[in-house]
Each structure stands twice: as structure tokens, then as C-alpha cells.
């Protein structure tokens, strides 16, 4: 059965895109068939994997509006299959608001191709709008990237409320897999306290290990590759490999 992981946190700048890309690369190393879905109109995942959102003739926008199939817009970027995004995706959110069953648009779009993959990773936008609801409705589980500072902690509570609504109305079986600490600086008391506090406050599993803050992670998108290719022996690359092993015990390293 295909595992569909929505990576979500409505607070921006918490490394959602980096987490999707890096986990995708790590899962690929483990022999898994992986699809990444760029559900953010900013197209950061598409760009980070080496695509140019400004030059695409078709994207996930066209798929959600039933103008194209997912198979028709698929790209292979940085060795991974990607459903790419463009700024047009912001318009798709508006169009979907007028359609019945709008929360299921992404799930329906994935149906014809989901059996091709072991894992589908969805990069949700930094909001709790229709696109994020689509990502959560299509998902089997949710991963929550957390930058260990106060405002990100607050955002987790808001996201969990939305997840509760999704469970009530569109996806009763949705699970929260846990929290991933990103850009983690173990030298600061704030980072340590925030990470400990989010597990206690919300009863969430904190996945190990934290991903250390690193300039290598920041450099990778400009090169159109994941940190696992840009700096394969870095602490951040090793952390994402360990996290991939934690969420995918079936796979094996190649």
C-alpha cells in the first residue's frame, strides 16, 4: 500500500520543502519508489529539485482543475518524480472553492498513479487553506517540521486543530506521524526547551534525530539538488537518512 505523507505547518520558513526533498532523496537511496507533490504556489520544491516553475507549460494547477492528468505533467527532477507547481496554483485554490468535493481534488488526481509509488510526499503550502486541506485529505499520515522557536510551537497547535477537522469531515484515518526538528541548534536552551515542550504539550512523537542547522542545506536549492547530493557526508544529510529509516523500516539502503 502506498504511504502518502503530507508535510505541513502553516508557519513559513520551517523547512517543509527541504524536508520533503531530503526525505524523498533518502527514501530513494533506500530503494523506495518516490513521488514528490509540490502543493505550494511558490513552487519552491519544483525549483529546489532543479525545475523552473516560470517555464512550465503545465503543472499541478492543470491537474487539480481536470485540464490534464497527473501522468501528463510529471517531471523527473534530481532523480525523483515530481508533480510540479507554478504560481497558477494560487488560482486553482480559488477555483476549487466553487466545486463540490473540492477537498478531494488532489486525492482523485493521485488515484491513477499512486500504485506506481511506495511513498508520496506532499509539500503543503504555509497556510491552512484549500490546498493544505487537499494535502491532508489525500494523506495517510502527517509530518510536522518544527523550527525550535516560540512561534513555530504555536503553529503546531493551530495545525492540529485543522487536522482534527479533516478527520471529522474528509479523512477519518489521518494519523500524525510526528514532529521533525529542523534547523536545530543544540547549543541554545530555547531550541532544547521548545523541542521538549511540543512533545509534552501536544502528546506528539518527536522523531529522532533533529536536523542540525547547516549552510549546506541552504546552499542545496540553488544547485537544484538535495542536501544528500550536495553534501552527502554532512550532519544534515545523515539526519535525513536516519529519519527516512525511522519512517520507512521496510526499505533498505542501496
Q: Rg to the nearest angstrom?
A: 17 Å
Arithmetic mean of pLDDT: 92
Strand content: 15-25%
* Strand segment tally: 8
How widely separated are the two ends?
Answer: 21 Å
Total of DSSP H or I helical runs spanning 4+ residues: 12
Task: Describe the 3D structure.
By secondary structure, the chain is of the alpha/beta class. It has helices at residues 16-29, 44-48, 60-64, 70-73, 89-96, 105-110, 130-138, 150-169, 189-202, 215-223, 227-230, 235-247; strands spanning 3-7, 34-38, 75-77, 80-83, 119-123, 141-147, 175-182, 206-207. Helix 1 packs across helix 12. The two termini are 21 Å apart. The model has no long low-confidence stretch (mean pLDDT 92).
Topology, please?
Layout: E1 3-7, H1 16-29, E2 34-38, H2 44-48, H3 60-64, H4 70-73, E3 75-77, E4 80-83, H5 89-96, H6 105-110, E5 119-123, H7 130-138, E6 141-147, H8 150-169, E7 175-182, H9 189-202, E8 206-207, H10 215-223, H11 227-230, H12 235-247
Parallel strand pairs: 1-5, 1-6, 2-4, 2-5, 6-7, 7-8
Antiparallel strand pairs: 3-4
Helix pairs in contact: 1-12, 8-9
Amino acid at each position: 500500500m502506498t504511504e502518502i505523507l503530507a508535510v505541513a505547518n502553516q508557519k513559513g520558513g520551517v523547512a517543509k520543502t527541504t524536508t520533503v526533498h531530503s526525505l524523498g532523496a533518502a527514501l530513494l537511496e533506500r530503494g523506495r519508489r518516490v513521488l514528490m507533490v509540490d502543493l505550494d504556489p511558490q513552487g519552491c520544491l519544483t525549483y529546489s529539485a532543479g525545475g523552473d516553475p516560470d517555464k512550465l507549460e503545465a503543472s499541478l494547477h492543470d491537474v487539480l482543475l481536470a485540464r490534464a492528468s497527473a501522468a501528463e505533467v510529471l517531471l523527473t527532477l534530481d532523480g525523483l518524480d515530481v508533480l510540479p507547481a507554478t504560481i497558477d496554483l494560487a488560482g486553482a485554490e480559488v477555483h476549487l472553492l466553487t466545486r463540490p468535493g473540492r477537498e478531494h481534488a488532489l486525492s482523485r488526481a493521485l488515484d491513477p498513479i499512486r500504485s506506481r509509488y511506495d511513498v508520496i510526499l506532499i509539500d503543503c503550502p504555509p497556510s491552512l487553506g484549500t490546498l493544505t486541506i487537499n494535502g491532508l485529505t489525500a494523506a495517510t499520515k502527517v509530518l510536522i517540521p518544527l523550527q525550535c522557536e516560540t512561534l513555530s510551537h504555536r503553529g503546531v497547535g493551530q495545525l492540529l486543530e485543522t487536522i482534527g477537522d479533516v478527520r471529522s469531515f474528509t479523512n477519518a484515518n489521518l494519523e500524525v506521524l510526528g514532529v521533525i526538528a529542523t534547523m536545530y541548534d543544540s547549543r541554545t536552551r530555547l531550541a532544547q526547551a521548545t523541542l521538549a515542550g511540543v512533545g509534552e504539550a501536544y502528546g506528539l512523537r518527536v522523531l529522532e534525530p533533529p536536523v542540525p542547522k547547516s549552510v549546506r542545506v541552504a546552499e542545496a536549492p540553488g544547485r537544484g539538488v538535495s542536501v544528500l547530493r550536495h553534501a552527502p557526508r554532512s550532519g544534515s544529510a545523515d539526519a535525513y537518512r536516519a529519519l527516512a529509516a525511522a519512517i520507512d523500516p521496510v526499505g533498505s539502503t542501496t
